[in-house]
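User: Structure please.
Assistant: Input sequence and predicted structure:
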Amino acid sequence: MGDPAAAWTAIGRAEVQRSGGWVPRPLSGGRELPLAWVRDGPGERTPVLAVPGGPGLASVLPYRGLRRAAARRGLDVIMVEHRGVGLSRHDSTGADLTVDDVTSTSAADDLAAVLDAAGVPRAIVYGTSYGSYLAQVFAVRHPDRIAAMVLDSPGLDAGDVADVRAHLRALFWDGHHPATARCAALVRELAAAGEDPLELSGVVQHVYEFAGSAPLERLLAARLRGRGRRSWARIAGLGRAEVESPTGQPLVFEPDLVRPIGQGELGFDAPPDGHPLDPQQLFALAPAAESRTPPYDIPVELGRFTWPVAVVSGDRDLRTPPPVAERVAELLPDAVLVPLAAHGHSALDTHRLAALNVAHVLEAGAHRALPGLAGRLAALPRRGASALLGPVLRAGIALDTRLPGAPPTP
């Protein structure tokens, strides 16, 4: 059998040759980075520059389906392989980039260089999760290149950590929301019984975001009875492998060279506070990385963003939750908040049709109509690999927690 990484690299390079190219980008010491980018679409309208999250997600291979789906709907989508990741990981000699080569400002300037190479004066910039932060840095440095913007599941800065903790605990420790009050009571019981706090936090986040409160309540109750062990173990391990891996998955998720951006600029290196349901417990497992100071005060800079912005927020997002999205929308001069019901983090990854429709409405110059369309957008069929996780979790939990002799849950 051949080398799988080599095979995927060949497929990725063929994709770049088919629909994009490589832009030479200068590095320190006279070195050069061949930066990979791709484009799918008719090329007759204002393109959408889509910036994925991570930090460390690749663009070329993981989002082929998204770009094809966008092109079928008349959208022209450009994506850039983030420097230090995938097909943009090596300099022109084949050597890995260094951590010092990979900064948010240089990655933002890469986006502008690709627009130059593609002959695009302005684009609709769609950033999701970490990509929303990079989109904001790009906007500060290149405001003349932006026609409109989508900030999907946005983050601002290290100050988000406090908001994330407060939102998670209000729902699942204090039980302030009727839909999660029973889950919160079960979480408190499990914590008092000595449940591993890292596993408890991970299960709450993943099941709620992807499957909702009813399957989560079922699994928490089963755990108290000593049941549901297989589902619990599988779900508890979902986030750990991604964070603990030093290099990730080649050509898909490669966080090692990009990690310092998240650590310093987005607060991933904030220490756990010692209280229950702290997402920072998971980040504390990540390999050590050099911390970075943010290049800009993004909350201040948002007041200078004069173009139309759609802020997309899932009501079940626990990573960049609705209070953060609401704050982002309030700081922007011409923004609308687009709340997606029964949805978690990153519509670009988990609700592709909703994301593409938001981009289409912005491209048509009608962003102010989006809040009124939010219900219809949320109800669209879920597409993409990540969208399958919710049904898989619900089915697995139902099967693993049913009582002996009980019929399958319909």
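The two ends are 43 Å apart (CA to CA).
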